[in-house]
Amino acid sequence: MLPWLAAAAAVALWLLLLAALAVATRNPDVVPVPPTAELAAHSPAVVDLITGDWRLCDEATSATLLDLAARGAVRIEEIGPELSLVRLRRDPGDLRPYEKLVYDHVRSLAVDGVVATGALAEGSRNLGRWRKSFRKKVIAEARAEGLSRSRWSRAQAVLLTAAAAVPAVAIAVAVTVSDKEHDGGLGAGILAFGALVALMGRLNGERGTRRGAEAAGQWLGVREHLAGTGRFSEQPAASVTIWGRHLAYAAALGLAPRAVTSLPVSVPADDRRAWSDYGGMWHVVDVRYPRRLLWAREPLPMLFYALVAGFFAGFWTWIVLLVLSALDLWPDALVQPGFLAVGAVVAGVPLVYAIMDLTGKAEIQGQIVRLRRFQAGTKGNNDPKYAYWCAIDDGRAREVKAYGISAAMWHPLSEGEKVRARVGRKLGWIDAIEVVERSRLHGTARYDDTGEHRIDAPENLGEVRIFDTGQE
Amino acid sequence: MITLIVVAVVAVLLVLAAISLYNGLVRKRGAVDNAWAQVDVQLKRRHDLIPNLVETVKGYASHERQALEAVVAARSQAVGAQTPREQAAAENALSGALKSLFALAEAYPDLKASRNFSELQEELSDTENRIAYSRQYYNDAVLTYNNAIQTVPANIVAGMTGFAAREYFQAPGDERGSVQVRF
């Protein structure tokens, strides 16, 4: 019992030390200055970081693109209420690393130097890696400007790690003593040490410096000013031509939701609304994934399923009609024709569809706009079963139905590839598919989306308290 | 009495359905008008750039009178066009005249080197691209609207309330597909 009490005490002491250090290293208080129009030299992304509890929001990427537009590296043009374009300029000038990341993403998508704003979510980049890269680059700049720093200093990290060894050893001893075979102590100790170090790492993150808190207070004053003077919430992204960098800062400060949502730089592409550049111009294509009752089905197995479905439908109809006829609610003479008719209809429709698709395939040529797989049940033992979908824009309509495809054919494909496919029009199944032209976005991004990452900066769990000065 | 109520309910449902269809058609027609206004903005922008271009070219190649007059005449035609079909034909002719003018500029190194000229050339190229996108946007709106007024049951409401099919803004043959406007 005593070893366990000692271990519990050691863990409690270590947690106390962690809590004390967490309090000591909490974010400094941010005191907003009175409303001001004075813009400091920080970029919108850095402003997003320091005014958002030293946590970067998705708005930062959109704000960065707006800032690039305000500075003339790109131009945002409104063509219609649902269509705006981002046009690259010839020389973007000197860009910060994270600005270059955004600029390169736009450039990778551009067709003749132009990309529709809605299409900014497209592309073959690994979005998680891209976001992480953006975030780390912004943090690097914030640290270089003295606005942010890692929560644990090197000394604090070493102290906590070394101190974690004490409760780990105590636990190891307790396990060894209480175990009849006297083994398992080492493993328990290692596990405990790992858990404590992981907890310490979890609490690590960015925290503001005194200078950062002052800058954040200044920017909160700007926020008050912008909220009071400009109607930024309804401004489209193209209005950056009028508002300039103010719109970019408004976006970073959470005041321009319309402009931010119209520039989906760091959000995943929509499953049902794709942007395609097939034919040379960006256009939207609505993708439907119909229910798989009579769609996205392979014709050959469908023959079997149709017969089984027809048999069961006929059988249950026969039972029901027998009961009804016994109750004099259905004529005896029509029991047999009744269940045969139901069985024939249930089996007949898919049978006809399957035979039509087996005997005559259509050939379509176009660009893959969506490749998706959705879970369609389990094979047992929690092994998920997937339905694989491939939507092809053939340039004829703005709405396409995604086809079903086998996993083996699906895996090597990429969105953006131009393909020629042999499909069954009735059951919506791709029988064969051939890549005619590789996607220009195929594989990894055509630009360096990682760069140098020497900063370990997980999410900051610290809090920033904002004091209302009461000054307007 | 029951028959009367049934008839009245059916009549009310029909009127509500007709109002809903009518409102839907009005929205789609509004979208077409709006899309055409966007095309118009881009075309006007293009027309406004041409006098500056002509003046710039005159400064370096004043004796290329024929080409300059062709551009001015084509611009006048384009400005005066009324329907999308007329507009498309006039814009096509204007594009042809501009291409000839830019081809002539190749023979005048001073003109080619002029910053004003190269900026106008780039601006016109961008505008052509915007026109192409506006045209696509307009044609998509027209397709949606025309489909709506021709499909059952909206075609009944459309026929009774005077919704007519709209013209597409047809692209000149060589501009279909990829938009690569290079003067």
From TrEMBL, chain B:
<dbReference type="InterPro" id="IPR007156">
    <property type="entry name" value="MamQ_LemA"/>
</dbReference>
<protein>
    <submittedName>
        <fullName>LemA family protein</fullName>
    </submittedName>
</protein>
<keyword id="KW-0472">Membrane</keyword>
<comment type="similarity">
    <text>Belongs to the LemA family.</text>
</comment>
<keyword id="KW-0812">Transmembrane</keyword>
<keyword id="KW-1133">Transmembrane helix</keyword>
<dbReference type="Pfam" id="PF04011">
    <property type="entry name" value="LemA"/>
</dbReference>
<dbReference type="InterPro" id="IPR023353">
    <property type="entry name" value="LemA-like_dom_sf"/>
</dbReference>
